[in-house]
């Protein structure tokens, strides 16, 4: 199975670490004061734990310097213990402040980041979503929030404490013995250098691991979504094999990265053993020379244990941070990808007074290679009802998508009441157009919510009236909770015809001045179609209407029928006018559907024109 990026025609921008951190900062910035409290709490908490071992050093120095005089040293030792207790109390206070500040700060920041990702993602174009797996996009949004959580946790609870403790320990040791300080500094430098160098080299494999995980998720999501097709076409075994190939590839890469982790753990063990040996070798030597006291041994033991504990997890920390970066990188690619269709600066609101639509010198190509529409010039008068027909791939649906600004024209312009739709807001454009699609997709929400989606402030009475006009009442009465019934994901609990009636009810309720019907009765039986045709006639009253039709029997009463073939308008007129033309493609299509056959020479002519699929119209 090719990767998502191979299947997509989208060229994503190159993402750097600064891009990822910038995206994170935009989500973090609204709560920067809470972040400051959190950081101060962490610094103070770890600073206390650098100071505390100094009192233990003093404690043992007092014992060994007291010469066995308990009465002399006891008050001093008690005072030291009290100081140690106070320091532990401060450490407890600072850690609680940091913990509660984190509990307030981090969940809200993660929510901000997910919202930021969703807001940008949902405004991408129709073409963007047709080039991406839904499951992979969902994964990217969720990973973005989790990547911040992992990165932030590592920085706040691991990296920041490590920096505070390293700096504090090196400063303290500098004043005790410079050479011991140099030894510790060199050990830290070697340890960090090796870990960072190794982790950077390993980054490319972590990124591949993130990509293969997205690939596996995408495969899983779209095969489950199309489970019915898999079953009907005996594809179960094939899809099992395909998923096994993906997961096997993932397992192989995971095994390789885990082996790399095992190597770095082995090196870390050797370095940890080495520092303890070297440190105490020199400590004993300097103690024998009278340069350091016994208390310094206690201090070194405490500091060595602290550094080893902190640095031992450094590889895991770096690995997690790089993996978090790799996870976030996929979402940041989308965040940095400019929206293909966006409002121009100072875009105006569309005002529809008449409803005239003009297509002027309109052309559209897919990726500059596949020509779909070429030099379309057409004026649809206010209130006119126009039907678009033509062979499969002629450009009918693209025609409508350009009107809705789901695509950007390659050339030319579209005007509504003289207003160029490229210069008006997308929201006002789509508010002025109602559409009943051929394949109605509903939300897993209540029936009432789906009907009211075009007018979300509609009253219960308005919803029920629109539903009645669309004859939804015929099946609503049989639903367990009426209009409060949840319709299932994509509306699967309703039949195709029921979903189409819901779409018609939604358009009735929206009541926009321009109406687009994409084979709005294709999923209905003859009885239902007869009932809904009345509703559609009511809906089309005083509206500029564009109908995409496959069944020609549904468009006889249109004011004008426009025949598109090869991306061009080849003929137009009323039903009777087109039938009167003996050479009309429309007449050939009509005869095919009305009579069930074609004259042999007509069939050959259509075949020569490349219209093998004309029978479906």
In short:
By secondary structure, this protein is an alpha/beta fold. The protein contains 21 helices and ten strands. It has helices at 4-7, 17-28, 32-65, 70-122, 126-130, 134-176, 178-225, 227-232, 236-288, 294-312, 314-336, 396-403, 426-431, 447-451, 460-469, 473-476, 496-510, 526-540, 575-579, 585-595, 600-608; strands at residues 357-366, 370-380, 385-389, 411-416, 419-420, 433-436, 514-518, 544-548, 560-565, 568-573.
Which strand-content bin applies to the residues? Answer: 5-15%
Task: State the strand order across the main sheet.
Answer: 6-7-8-3-9-10
State mean pLDDT (0 to 100 scale).
Answer: 81
Major beta sheet, specifics? 6 strands, mixed
């Amino acid at each position: 199975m090719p990767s998502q990026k191979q299947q997509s025609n989208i060229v994503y921008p190159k993402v750097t670490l600064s891009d990822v951190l910038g995206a994170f900062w935009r989500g973090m910035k609204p709560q920067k004061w809470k972040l400051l409290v959190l950081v101060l709490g962490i610094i103070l908490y770890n600073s206390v734990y650098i100071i505390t071992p100094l009192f233990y050093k003093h404690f043992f120095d007092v014992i060994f310097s007291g010469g066995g005089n308990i009465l002399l040293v006891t008050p001093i030792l008690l005072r030291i213990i009290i100081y140690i207790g106070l320091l532990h109390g401060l450490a407890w206070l600072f850690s609680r402040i940091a913990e509660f500040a984190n509990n307030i700060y981090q969940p809200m920041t993660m929510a901000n980041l997910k919202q930021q990702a969703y807001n940008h993602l949902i405004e991408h174009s129709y073409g963007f979503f047709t080039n991406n797996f839904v499951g992979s996009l969902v994964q990217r949004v969720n990973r973005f929030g989790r990547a911040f959580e992992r990165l932030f946790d590592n920085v706040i609870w691991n990296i920041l404490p490590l920096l505070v403790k390293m700096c504090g320990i090196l400063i303290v040791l500098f004043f005790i013995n410079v050479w011991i300080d140099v030894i510790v500094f060199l050990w830290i430098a070697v340890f960090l250098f090796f870990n960072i160098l190794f982790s950077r080299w390993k980054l490319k494999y972590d990124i591949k691991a993130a990509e293969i995980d997205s690939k596996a998720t995408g495969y899983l999501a779209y095969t489950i979504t199309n489970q019915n097709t898999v079953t009907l076409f005996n594809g179960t075994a094939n899809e099992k094999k395909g998923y096994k190939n993906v997961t096997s590839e993932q397992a192989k890469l995971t095994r390789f990265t885990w082996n790399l982790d095992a190597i770095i753990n082995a090196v870390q063990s050797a370095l940890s053993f080495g520092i303890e040996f070297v440190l105490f070798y020199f400590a004993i030597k300097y103690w024998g020379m009278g340069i350091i006291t016994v208390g310094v041994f206690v201090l070194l033991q405490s500091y060595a244990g602290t550094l080893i504990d902190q640095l031992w997890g450094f590889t895991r920390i770096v690995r997690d941070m790089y993996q978090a970066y790799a996870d976030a990188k996929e979402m940041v690619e989308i965040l940095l990808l400019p929206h293909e269709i966006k409002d121009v600066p100072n875009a105006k609101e569309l005002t529809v007074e008449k409803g005239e639509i003009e297509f002027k010198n309109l052309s559209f190509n897919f990726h500059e290679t596949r020509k779909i529409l070429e030099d379309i010039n057409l004026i649809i008068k206010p209130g006119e009802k126009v039907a678009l027909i033509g062979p499969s791939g002629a450009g009918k649906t693209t025609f409508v998508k350009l009107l809705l600004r789901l695509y950007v024209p390659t050339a030319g312009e579209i005007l509504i009441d003289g207003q160029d739709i490229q210069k008006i807001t997308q929201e006002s454009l789509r508010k002025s157009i109602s559409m009943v699609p051929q394949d109605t997709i509903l939300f897993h929400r209540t029936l009432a919510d789906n009907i009211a989606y075009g007018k979300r402030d509609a009253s219960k009475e308005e919803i029920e009236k629109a539903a009645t006009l669309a004859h939804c009442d015929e099946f609503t009465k049989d639903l367990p909770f009426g209009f409060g019934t949840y319709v299932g994901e994509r509306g699967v609990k309703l039949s195709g015809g029921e979903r189409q009636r819901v779409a018609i009810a939604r358009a009735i309720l929206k009541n926009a001045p321009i109406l687009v019907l994409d084979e709005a009765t294709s999923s209905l039986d003859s009885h239902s179609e007869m009932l809904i045709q009345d509703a559609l006639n009511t809906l089309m009253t005083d509206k500029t209407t564009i109908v995409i039709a496959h069944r020609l029997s549904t468009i006889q009463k249109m004011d004008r029928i426009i025949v598109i073939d090869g991306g061009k308008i080849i003929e137009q007129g009323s039903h009777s006018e087109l039938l009167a033309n003996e050479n009309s493609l429309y007449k050939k299509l009509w005869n095919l559907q009305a009579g069930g056959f074609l004259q042999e020479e007509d069939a050959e002519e259509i075949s020569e024109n490349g219209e093998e699929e004309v029978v479906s119209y």
